Amino acid sequence: MLAGCGPSGGPSDTGPTVQGAGTKAGMGTETEAGAGAEAGEGTEAGVGKGPGGGAGRSSGPSGPSGPSGPSGPNRPAPGRPPVVDHVPTRDKVVFLTYDDGAERDPRFIDLVRRRRLPVSMFLTDSVVGPGYGHFARLRSVGASLQNHTLDHPALRGLPYAGQRAEICGQQRKLTSRFGIRPHLFRPPYGTYDTTTLRAAADCGIKAVVLWRVTLEGDGTLTYTRGAHRLAPGDIISVPAGETPPLTLAERTTRLLRELEERGLKVGRLEDYVR
Ligand SMILES: [Zn+2]
């Protein structure tokens, strides 16, 4: 099954960031991650409204293919989309992003409508299958629909033509199904290389969106890097599980309670990354 952008066995367990001690230790993805942070990406392409630097570190999710990509560091080049897993902002917001489109929980639509949640859905065509009606309804109640490839391959290392076909192909699908042209792209498993960034740019993508926090199937939060607590600007990934202990609506409700306790609200990612 294609669903599941690696909740368990995915990016999060490659990034055992230890709170307090040696936050960068053990990441093993510094080559890829360092590039974005050093060059202060995020400002040049309009990512982030906040004053803080260090946007767009992409160290966390590296996917099952491991940290050693074929093309080395991703130095942001002109015209290449920034890679973000956290938005530098002082606004008390976090961003809810849902992957794949496998879980079609009608109560989730009610929740998004009732609570007016500006969530982002990263859709894979082959996973969504005939379920486009569900996502059209979600969109009508305030969700945004974004690109997560046609077939959910691990893109890193694939030739340009193949990567471009996956990304541009899904752009075309989303355009024809919903009349939209997404600006955000999430690579499956969070794994990508410089070719991905080039292909994404050529397909009209403005930013590549990873995540720092994962909402697991049982409702707990795991962190790919940094402090093990929610912070303003965090991008939270909600992977689609096979048969998660809690439904999408239940997991989201639990998270909303936690956000409330911390004085955080759900922000619209497109307002901060564009
Ligand atoms: Zn996925």
Automatic annotation (TrEMBL):
Residue ranges annotated for the NodB homology domain, each copy included: 92-267
Biased composition (Gly residues): 37-57
Example of a GO MF term: hydrolase activity
SUPFAM superfamilies: Glycoside hydrolase/deacetylase
E.C. code: 3.-.-.-
Keywords of the record: Hydrolase
Region described as Disordered: 1-88
Keyword hit for Transmembrane helix: no
Bias type Low complexity, positions: 10-36
Top EC class of this enzyme: hydrolase
Stored PANTHER family: GLYCOSYL TRANSFERASE-RELATED, SECRETED PROTEIN
Protein known as: Polysaccharide deacetylase family protein
